[in-house]
Amino acid sequence: MNSMGLGLQLKDSIPVTEHHDLLWKAFSCVKNELLKKFQLNQDKMNFSTLRNIQGLFAPLKLQMEFKAVQQVQRLPFLSSSNLSLGILRGSDDTIDILNDPSQSEVEYKVMVEYKLGFL
């Protein structure tokens, strides 16, 4: 047996753990991966339930309403609560106290210039 074959056998048989730097990467958690797609999965489940109960037209109508509501925008430096989107999703009774847009530090002039394409 040549040394190349032995090296491949050792590499495949011995598990090698790589160094995980916790300062740069947080602890790996299943919850973080699931929360990234939570709203998408929730919408898919609601659409499939709505389709089974009311037929094909109901989810299509709701998707058109979602797209129409998402196109409405304010000036970039004004925070928007997206109340109409929250009403359509049924999350208008949820209050988010940790993500307060009034406490963000924003340069308004730069945001408007970027939105208009000057930067």
From TrEMBL:
Pfam families recorded: UMP1
GO cellular component: cytoplasm; nucleus
Keywords, in A-Z order: Chaperone
GO biological process: proteasome assembly
Family from the record: Belongs to the POMP/UMP1 family.
Protein name per Swiss-Prot or TrEMBL: Uncharacterized protein
InterPro entries, per database record: Ump1 (IPR008012)
